[in-house]
Amino acid sequence: MALDIKKFIGRFVEEAKDHLGRMSSGLSLLEQGAASTEEVNSLFRSAHTLKGSSRMLRLEPITQLAHSLEDLLSALREQQVQVNHAVMDALYQGVDALSDQVEQLIQQGQVAELSTTQSQLCQRLSGLAEGKEVLADTLASSAAIESEQPPRGPDTEVERSTPSLSTSDTVRIKLTKLDELIKLMGELISSHASMRDMAATAQRIEKQLQQQVEGELPLAMRQFSRDMRDIVLLQDNLTQELHDKALQLRMLPMAIVLDPAARLVRDMARTLGKQVECRVYGSEIELDRQMIDQLADPVIHLLRNALDHGIETPEVRQKAGKPAQGLLQIRARQDAGWVVVDIRDDGAGLSVDAIREKALKKGVFSGAVLEEMSDQQITDLIFMPGFSTSAIITEVSGRGVGMDVVKRSIVDELQGVISIQTSPGEGTCFTLRLPLSLAIMRVLLIRAGAQVLGFTAQYVSELLSVAPTALIRVADRNAVIIRNEFVPVIKLAELLHLPQETAPKKTLSRDAKNLLLLVIRVHTEKLAVQIDELLDERDLVIKQLPEHLRSNQLISGMVTTGQNQLVNLIHVPYVLDMARKTRQSTSTVVSSEYAKPKQRILVVDDSLNTREIERDVLEAWGYHVTLAEHGADGLQKALAEDFDAVLTDVEMPIMDGFTLTARLRENDNYRNKPIIIITSREKDSDRRRGIEVGADAYIVKGSFDQTSLVDTLKVLLD
Question: Is 151 within the bounds of a domain?
Answer without folding.
Answer: no
